[in-house]
Amino acid sequence: MVSSSGAPAMKWAVPLTTSHVVQLLRAERDVQKAFLIFEAASGEHSSGYRHDHSTFSFMSTRFAAAGLPRSAEALLNRALSELGDAPAEPSFLPVIRAYSRARLPLDALRLFRRMTSEFLLPPSHRSYNAVLSVLVASRHLSLAKTLFDEMKLRRIPFTAATFNILIKALCFSSGALETAVRIFRRMPDRDCPPDACTYNTLIDGLCRHGRAHDARKMFDEMQQRGCSPTVVTFTSLMDGLCRSGLFENALQLFDDMHERGIKPNVVTYTSLIDGLCRGGRSAEAMGLLESMGRQGCSPNVITYSALIDGLCGQGRLGEALEVFDKMRLQGRKPDAGLYCKIIKILCESKRYQEAANYLDEMALSGVVPNRLTWGLHVRWHNMVIRGLCGTRGVTIRAFQAYRSARKRGISVEPETYGALVDYCCREGDADKAMSIVDGMVVDGCFPDSNAWCSILAVLWEGRKVREAAELVWEELLCGDADHAVSQGM
């Protein structure tokens, strides 16, 4: 049996009320099943039930929380259509934030504009702050400025949250930092004393633009004004001190944090580990990694990547590989960038067979390079193959690495093809050499005279003179014909 709304009909134990429907929606964890309940209730008009703004708003919020902002917005539209008046402003805020989480800032702005133009709701500081936060986080600063100006024109008072968003926008540019500080200083005059979020934003902005000393002064002022630093405050300042080479100050601040009973999180540890590694102090960074485990804070891929990068940069390959293995044992899956770092340092150490093993492991683990790491992936694949070609007795491994690259659509460079042909010929494997030549021709990379000389030499030594001549003439004739066609075109 199906209800008039198209949803399966349900038998209700008691006469339906909106509060009862909200309880049922709250109890159902699966958002799609919750929507089925909502739709089933929609079909109970004959029993006198009708959704109101509380049920529409609750279901819309559920969709927003589940990362389905378009479905949430559709329910807001439906509420206006079915109830004849608009949902209240708070119903729009979760949907605006859901668009932000979905990285759709312009959709968040579009919904905000619809709220005022189609739903005819006057915006308050709450909706302005919600959409401003989205625009600033996504660096749509010119649009954000338009909204700030609009707030002033409408005489909507700025709250502490509005000032925090404005200061964050100004902190993106080093040239606007002084303006951010001036606005910060004027906040008490507008009955908006700075809070921890304000200080954190300003300290982070100063640190990111190399003004760690000023950030430290702001940190001290924060405490003098009775505003307690948070884990975010300490993390931002430690990162800034490390970037300025003030490692002892950063470590002292880390100890200070412990003494105050503020527990470092994974971002804190990662920032400090990265800073120490950049400063060539990877031994201390290793100690911090061990400390994380003792404190019950699990390192993430970024933590391991920072440490491995630092160890590799200092030539401590053995320790880098140990950390890499430890990472996998703890169930952390390395990404393509981290594999590339390991493969790079192995190639630089001329440990090509191990590098080839990591390339295979990467493929078997289903790790796929993204558009940023693809170029590095191609580069190191070719370097591994050429490196194997310079190692005696590993013809099969070099050929396997070559076949694996082709199978995965990785471009084989002309220099790599030449090294493979020469290597196979030196190892006396004419069949593999000719197979590689076939691959070259398919890729539009015609063998040069050195490659042909190598092939002829190995075939001659194998007493296959007539067969060699026929194969060479066939390839040369095909090549000349293709060349003539291309010249004619």
Automatic annotation (TrEMBL):
InterPro entries xref list: PPR_rpt (IPR002885), TPR-like_helical_dom_sf (IPR011990)
Protein name listed in UniProt: Pentatricopeptide repeat-containing protein
TM annotation in the entry: none
Domain of life: Eukaryota
PROSITE patterns in UniProt: PPR
Keyword tags: Repeat
Similarity remark: Belongs to the PPR family. P subfamily.
Ranges: PPR repeats: 159-194, 195-229, 230-264, 265-299, 300-334, 335-369, 413-447
